[in-house]
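Entry under discussion copied across for reference:
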Amino acid sequence: MSTAPLDPATPLTTGILLFDEVEELDAVGPWEVFGAATLQFPQDRVLALAPRAGELRAAKGLRLVADLALADAPPLDVLLVPGGRGARALAGDARVLAWLRERAARARWTTSVCTGALLLQAAGLLAGRRATTHWSFCDELEARGVTVLRGERWVADGQVVTAAGVSAGIDMALWLLGQLRGEAAARATQRYLEYDPRPPFAAGA
């Protein structure tokens, strides 16, 4: 799907959910994309949100700091839910799931990376939608009644976008930036990041 880019003067707020044992690149990859875009659109902002504000430890040990508790978050244009072991634990937290439903209803876009899709599903946000997730959790997401498109880097269905594992969140964020700010702005951000993946080992090898 494609939408007309917003007026350049329209401010955008992106909220990225953090939690203990979040997968680092799931959150930091999209943060880098939307954060770099503020060089072109300084009125935009990217916020780190968590059930409680303050420091947390990510899956590989990196310490992150949430700007705001979920209850204190402003209205969001883009809601991004990363994955990691902590995402699977949050899938049973009724307060977090209720917050996701409430914020998704008002956001321009609701997105996930990796097993963040399991959180979206638990909140009822993938009902009747196609989606993707990390390859090792496709079966589990499918067993929960979601139509899973395997092998896709990201899947957009309506205003919900899901990305596959870890690095795919960067691809998804750049695509989404193109929807919001136009292809030229997204290309400029991609160039600034020097994002031109050439992995030393072929996929599946």
In short: The chain has one domain: 13-188. The helical segments are 24-37, 85-90, 94-104, 116-122, 138-143, 168-181, 183-192. The chain has a mean pLDDT of 96.
